[in-house]
Amino acid sequence: MAIVDSTTWPSIFFWMTMMSAIAINLANGIYQGCVYGLAARFPMKYTNSVTMGMNVSGTIAAILMIISIALSPKENVEALIFFSSAVVLLFVCLIGQFYVNKNEFYRFFATPSMINANLNLIKSINACPSCFEKGHSETSNNNCPHLGRALERSVSYNGKSSPEKQPLIESKMQQYLQVLRSIWMLLLNIFLIYVVSLSLFPTVHARIIPKDNIISSAYFSPVFCFLSFNLFATVGNLIAQYIQWPGPRHLIIFSLIRLLFIPFFLYCNYYPGDGLHRSLNIIFDHDWMFIIGSITMAISSGYLSSLCMMYAPKCVPPHLATISGQMAALTILLGILIGMNISLVYPHLFY
User: Fold this and answer.
1) 149 is in which domain, residue-wise?
2) Where does the protein principally reside (predicted)?
3) Residue where one domain finishes, among candidates 164, 195, 223
4) Which of 89, 141, 274, 339 is within CB 3.0–4.6 Å of 198 for a Cys-Cys bond?
């Protein structure tokens, strides 16, 4: 459609675009929920890889944006290149899925029969589940070096009886309720993280007016808004791969502290546009202040969101890990939805 002249039928073209957007995002929501649910069965670093992939994709898109500005091609050619790249990537993923289904490691964690065998093995050797995932199957619960940490207390299901002593859950509704009771605090963290991030990025960040001439104004927003956020969010994901602190019970402290990013960026050199005039004083008027704040917000967003997604499947019994991952993915989408709509309110409340 990028190379079709639609000037004579704009209304039809508009509704075709809207319908395709609905179909794409419905498919994306289902796909994302399934991927997180599947990744929840694996060791924590694999769940984090899915979260990291979201930010890596944003980084790639931002780089393509900067390249397109530099080359300045025609808009229809630019759109054709972007959509063609997406189709090629989808085919690569499809081929990858075909091969991964034959991978023994994948089948070990993803196949229900293998999951049960895995759990029975852990019970038979009295091993710590986290140590077993890391390859230390000889470590028993009695001398596990991880016990006593916040994560391991959550892995033991918040002090409740062990999974083999818990009654079987019969209905899906009971399973969802048990997962919700176990990880509601983590879901709240996920919601707050994405609400803060998406209420500020990209709507507010993209309307920060450069003042110090660090780079050309044409590149300021693409570099220090789109590329910066996605790149440093990926850095936060990478840090979480090696450092898991704080534990699930104390994440809420840092999620609430991140609310301070909202007034910080609103008091930067932000102009809402659309005929609205700024009435608030500018406190943080230098570009480097905005850049440091943007990097800090991005790293904290990537780091904390990774911890939440890694902890969630480990805070429920193993047979409920998939549901836990799917609920976490749903919370991400809810946080994105609410955050993006909150961003529409800022200009009318403060300007």
Assistant:
1) 121-164
2) membrane
3) 164
4) 339
